[in-house]
User: What shape does this take?
Amino acid sequence: MEIIVASRNSAKVAELMKLLSPLDIKVLSLEDFPDLPEVVEDGDTYEENAVKKARQVAEAAGKIALADDSGIEVDALQGEPGIKSARFGGEEFTDHERNMKLLKMLEKVPDDERGATFQCRVAIAGPDKLLKVVEGICRGAITREPRGGGGFGYDPIFTPVEYHQTFAELSPEVKNRISHRGRALEKAALFLEGYVYSERKE
Amino acid sequence: MEIIVASRNSAKVAELMKLLSPLDIKVLSLEDFPDLPEVVEDGDTYEENAVKKARQVAEAAGKIALADDSGIEVDALQGEPGIKSARFGGEEFTDHERNMKLLKMLEKVPDDERGATFQCRVAIAGPDKLLKVVEGICRGAITREPRGGGGFGYDPIFTPVEYHQTFAELSPEVKNRISHRGRALEKAALFLEGYVYSERKE
Assistant: This one.
């Protein structure tokens, strides 16, 4: 079976491929389909965005597609930036600029009030219909400065519960096991494994 | 699709049925197959026992079977009773007697050294082969006395991390979401959902 990971973010595609690698599934990325139209992420929820991306890519490519949408919800900002995480501060911002802006906004927030939740939804769609949406959540806190060179996005300023290191400092193995995306993808992988298993048996 | 839950423990069967209820799967128990031989749980690991039970029932009944094996590993007892949890103290012991024996053994263990891990493995087998084994783990601590009337087994003396109530005091909804068995069954359910989904499409 082939499945398309509906993303052009190479770090994210690599992370997704790694998580899906134990399965007997060939993972393609949007780089393999350069002519597919860009999907506009204008949904009101993570689920809406993930479903929209997975559906559009699956329909255009005629293959099963997997898409995720995620965001970070900061307690002290009443859940912001949330669904707007990827565009926080403006489309032209780099990840680092976004992180510095968020840290600046939280400058006066004391250590015990810096809680945050990483949210992720992963949608799996077939060429003709949606198959499944799964959820992954990771609770943690926002640091006072960026730390670590791994990962992407808000990884350098987020320490998951029970860890002192940020997502950008933790090894990819540890991060993928406990992260919002890792947890959602573990569920997606189990669904796909059952799906593939059943197909193989025919 | 029909699936047999390979257990005669009615509390466990009820818990399993509840967890599998969102799926388009008819859940049967061993009560529906009174003539199936008893499976001897003599494996060295949870996985071995779960696989053995699932396989024997699936082969005898000619249907997909799901079996679990679980145990509690107490830090202060170097992981005991572990694989022997269900027979700890002797086959004739009641759950309550088992709990009292364990509490007695831990009488002098201070509060901050009473950590324990609930382990669970769930195996899914078809009539002709094994399909999948999944894992669920729940970390917590052993109380000083039994509390609560829900659940079964060691539930009254185990408080999961981040909760003050025992598994026997927590609502079934909360327990099933965070417990070792709940987590393993969530994974099993995702696998089965993909499996069923693929079958339905034919």
